[in-house]
Amino acid sequence: MRYLLVYMFFIHSFLYSQKKVDTDSISHYTEQANSSIKENNYKNALFFTQKAINYCEVQLKKEAQAIQTFNLGKIYYDLSKYSDANEIFTESISLFEGLPPSTQVANSYYYLSLSSIGTKNYKAAENSLNKALSIYKTLNIQPNEDIVNLQKGIIYKAYKNYNAASFCFNLVISKPDSPEILDVKAEALYQIGLIEEINKRNNLALNYYNKALELNAKNDNLKQKSDILLALSSVYGNILNKSTAYSYLQQHLNLKESISISNNEKLGIDDYENFKETQRLEKIERINKKIAEEEKNTKFSKLINILAIALILILSLLSLSLYKNNIIRNKSNLLLHEKNTELIIAKEKAEKASQARFEFLSTVSHELRTPLNAINGITHLLLEENPKKSQLHYLSSLKFSGNYLTTFINEILEINKIESNTVEVDTVNFNLKQLLEDIRNSLKEIALKNNNTFTFNIDETIPDHLIGDPTKLSQIFMNLINNSLKFTKNGNVTIQAKLRSHIDDTAVLSFEIIDTGIGISRDKLDTIFESFSQGSVEINRKYGGTGLGLTIVKKLTKILGGQIKVESILGKGSVFSFQLEFTVNEQHSSDSPIIKNYDESIFANKNILVVEDNKINQMIAKKMVLNKGMKCKIIDNGEEAIEKVRNHKFDLILMDVHLPGINGTVATKKIREFDILTPVIAVTAISLNENREMLLSFGMNDVITKPFDPEYFYAVIAEQLDKVNT
What we know:
alpha/beta
């Protein structure tokens, strides 16, 4: 916090009005102290400031003593002796008690807040800052808002309220550069970089640290520069750039040593400890003198003498007690430090393991999706070419296997997203009754296959228009209903939705999925929601499935604010139930996507550019495009695709994301520099570190995930072609 010393709130706060006869000696000591500070002779500065305090105490000038005590605390703060500064600023504030509110007492509270940050007592720092701001407001004084915003941001960051902290830091960063704000702005950039690094956005953190270092170069704040160099070393270490990390670490250590040498030159350790001990002894001596003077002027000298001895004994015992407590505290702190170090190492290991799993699943996702897309695509093409009856069975089995693998991969990735806290809850308008009707229509064939009676009982009093997350709600229903239909044959599957309460704009709904299937044994009920758990190996072999569906259901239900429950009797069936709260949409509008049928005539003679480096995927994409009467041009790299679009007119571009050379996102971004109209659809074996919003941000119009469903493939193309024509 040393950077804040450059920006004093109000210089006149250190001056006060008194009669000249009372201030001559104080002015002399203050002048000597200030002169010593300029010469970096902090030993003399402490000496003369203490002399001023003693003079004020003798003269019974309480306000002047409070101001000089503040000056002493300020020197301690300059020397980074935050604990001592805390004690002195608190003493200064106690001396101001009973006096009218003033700028001086506000400054004492403000610097008490700064020294509390130095000792990492952020709650005390917040209280002191609020008290200082309240007094400034009472006095109609406007403090430096940039410094205040920076200090608030640091406190918020300590509380892990990163959004509030970032808001405060951005208020400072948004100000134009000027000599008065450079130090504060550099610190704000450094602090927001720390937040980005905590959130593992290393590239953003690196950007903020570099900007902070650039501004720091324009001032002489070496402590701030040391902190920024250490942060740069840390973030380069995170991105595994070890050589650069080591270089910044060396710079940090060299500068830190230089600062330490400079501080020692200002005030040696021995000088400081001698000063503290001298002041303690002088304080005791002043007490003794005072007692002696009182003894001369009182009739109870014997009693006063006894009290004086008792006081000395108490002070001695207190000093001894404090000394012993300090030894015990140091030992406890050392033990805590060791335990904290162990916890940090364990935390780092856990984070590395989590990152390794994340990267492994991302690689597996991409590497499996690409060949799986070829399997599904070729199977679709073969089924469209009127295969022989003897071949139809094998192709149908191949299609089933491909769909099964696709579901398996998607469910594994869904679980990982939930566990890594990357799933966000949407709040959109939707029609629950229509959503359930769509689900029923999509699952009719499964119900017929197992000869099940498939019934939906939907409470008519449920509002038509709700605000919630229909996508996650659909995932819950699809998993639960699919399970009931799969594990029930020649039975009944019933879905019930009831309105439990409707108060103001809040509706509480309960849902039940009831089946008469094989049921779940009592000893398996506690583990049925665990990953890859299906009750038994025999059930897995007989009915298939990944064993992840109910795990996803449990986690998504919890994310939406509910809790899934199950009741089951082996051989008689199961009941899965949960309850959720929704906001009622009084505007009667819906953001839910409406699936439209497309007219195949829109494909006729359309000129399609396919950018894909995989030969098999090239063949599949070209065949599927040609089958609908479209024309097709194949390009296998991003650079050539950019030039092709620049010199030729295409109705639509199918862009693979992972290409040799520049990838599909960069190619799309460059195309958008000269062509903003031609639709570009990303076709990608999407990995964990990719998402739809990220891809659309590069200028793509839509995303098709490999392996894709052929009908969805055509529907997305038709939708984009239709948008261009309208």
